[in-house]
Amino acid sequence: MRGLYSFVDHVHPYVRAKADAFEVAPGQTVIDYGCGPGRYSVEFARLVGENGKLIAVDLLETALQEAEKRLEAAGYSNFELVLAHDYDTGIADNTADIVFAIDMFHHVSDTNACLQELFRIAKPKALLIFSGGHMLRSRLKGKVAQSGIWELAQERKEFIAYQKKNAGDE
């Protein structure tokens, strides 16, 4: 699988172009929730730069091992790997400037527990960004709306971004 992704990324740098569209800024702390083998993690580490931090989170240790190999092979040290237990990441409250959930929400069985954890680890004005996936956009938006804690901040072809409700008041 790694070889196939590497070949695809080399021939068509889709992941890099998509990551650039997310407008990650140098120095930010970014969480790649459900990072899988780290295709986007490498790009996020590049975008946050040496003064920023990437936190790659997954339920599978093998996924984190693969992400670590990719990050190290690319020469990055500005990252942390977190093995989640169900939806508990153990990450401190208010850590992330941006939380990414890329092509993973269709795997979530308890959407409220997941969204609560993402809310907890996001800073007050952080963005929660969903992109891609095997879930209809309308269904995803419905599930996030049902949580009652996130509000739509921006919707583009490439992604949907949410902010904590009442974030402007904090």
Please give the structural blueprint.
Blueprint: H1 2-11, H2 14-21, E1 29-33, H3 39-48, E2 53-58, H4 61-73, E3 79-83, E4 96-102, H5 111-121, E5 122-131, H6 137-147, E6 150-155, E7 160-164
Parallel strand pairs: 1-2, 1-4, 2-3, 4-5
Antiparallel strand pairs: 5-7, 6-7
Helix pairs in contact: 2-3, 5-6
Structural summary, described in words:
The chain is α/β, with parallel strands linked by helices. The chain contains 6 helices and 7 strands, in the order H-H-E-H-E-H-E-E-H-E-H-E-E. The protein has a single domain, classed as Vaccinia Virus protein VP39 (Rossmann fold, 3-Layer(aba) Sandwich). The chain has helices at residues 2-11, 14-21, 39-48, 61-73, 111-121, 137-147; strands at residues 29-33, 53-58, 79-83, 96-102, 122-131, 150-155, 160-164. A 7-stranded mixed beta sheet has the order 3-2-1-4-5-7-6, sandwiched between helices. Helix 2 (14-21) packs across helix 3 and helix 5 packs across helix 6. The protein starts with a helix and ends in a 6-residue tail after the last strand. Mean pLDDT is 89; it is low at 7-12.
Spatial order of strands in the largest sheet: 3-2-1-4-5-7-6
Proportion in helices:
25-40%
Architecture per CATH nomenclature, i.e. the level-2 architecture: 3-Layer(aba) Sandwich
Give the distance, in angstroms, between the N- and C-terminal Cα atoms: 44 Å
CATH class: Alpha Beta
The third-level CATH topology is Rossmann fold
Strand content: 25-35%
Shape: globular
Helical stretch count? 6
Low-confidence stretches: 7-12
For CATH, the homologous superfamily is named as Vaccinia Virus protein VP39
Mean pLDDT: 89
Write the H/E string, N to C: HHEHEHEEHEHEE
Q: Which structural class should the secondary elements be placed in?
A: alpha/beta
